[in-house]
Design brief:
alpha/beta, six-stranded parallel sheet, 13 strands, Rossmann fold, 291 residues, single chain
Length: 291
């Protein structure tokens, strides 16, 4: 297939391209090559390239900036997604949309599955939920894939794991919240899981995360330091209420997939703890840690 990847320049795109290139002809496009909120630009691109499938990775993911600037959040996550979904509907092209477990409010006492009702608690989650709604309305052939707590992308990684390693190079103690729980997921594993999903699973909404028990940010931070050769005791626990952040964070962002368990074969995802150790070793070398 000819697969158009929108938002290919980010951390997921970095790990996704090598995986998908082995199976398909890919057309990776960053924001400078296609502003998905620009309707005429996106329509012209679809008309010219005529892809067999579109992967929509482009997103505004800075949770606090989204909270302070709704236009920043909704331009890409809602309006841009709507534009792409409409074009996929017009050209009868299947669409893979990467969403987030943050569409839920975090009040559940157990991991969220595909049949829980979304109720976003911050602007980021709300904008992504509006993106999901647009995909369902305008692109009949779609996979909506919710994931979260991503790590990967090497030096392009600006998320939690990479931040912990950068802080460890500078600070003696690092405070990390212990009352937020999620399902850490390696972007390289997610890339392979997405390929399995589109090749073997019917259209629909799925949760796709690494296997293994859920973890708190505190636990994830300690495991990250240990994998890099630092003392885990440099991570000190704190509560979310002690941090002055613009956007509220869901207490529960862990996920499970009921649907993939019920499908023959499903999608096989490694344990996040094994993937984290391997990734931290790679990233540590790139960052010069221990050299």
């Amino acid at each position: 297939m000819k697969v158009m990847i929108l938002g290919a320049g980010g951390m997921l795109g970095t790990d996704l391209l090598p995986v998908w290139k082995k199976e398909h002809k890919v057309l990776p496009l960053g924001h400078s090559e296609c502003d998905i909120s620009n309707r005429s630009e996106t329509a012209s691109l679809m008309e010219r390239e005529r892809p067999d499938m579109v992967l929509l990775l482009a997103a505004a993911t800075d949770v606090d900036r989204c909270q302070l600037d709704r236009e920043y959040a909704f331009r890409t996550n809602a309006m841009g997604t709507e534009v792409v979904a409409q074009q996929c509907g017009i050209f009868s092209v299947p669409l893979v949309y990467i969403s987030t477990i943050a569409v839920f409010n975090g009040e559940k006492d157990a991991p969220y599955d595909e049949y829980d009702l979304p109720a976003p608690m911050n602007v980021y989650g709300l904008s992504k939920y509006h993106g999901e709604t647009a995909v369902r309305e305008f692109a009949p052939m779609h996979w909506i894939v919710r994931t979260g707590w991503l790590f990967g992308g090497g030096l392009r990684d600006m998320k939690f794991v990479a931040k912990i390693l950068r802080r460890a190079q500078e600070d003696d103690e690092i405070s990390v919240v212990r009352d937020c729980v999620g399902s850490p997921t390696y972007t390289a594993d997610l890339a392979s899981g997405l390929l399995q999903l589109v090749e073997g699973c019917p259209y629909g909404t799925y949760h796709l995360i690494n296997s293994g028990v859920s973890a708190s940010r505190y636990e994830l931070g300690r495991m990250t330091l240990a994998a890099a050769g630092y003392s885990m005791d440099r991570i000190q626990p704190c509560l979310s209420s002690e941090l002055d952040l613009p956007a509220p964070r869901p207490r529960m962002e862990a996920a499970v997939s009921i649907k993939l368990k019920m499908l023959p074969g499903g999608v096989q995802m490694p344990d996040w703890r094994d993937s984290l150790r391997g990734y931290v070793h790679l990233l540590s070398r790139e960052m010069g840690i221990g050299s």
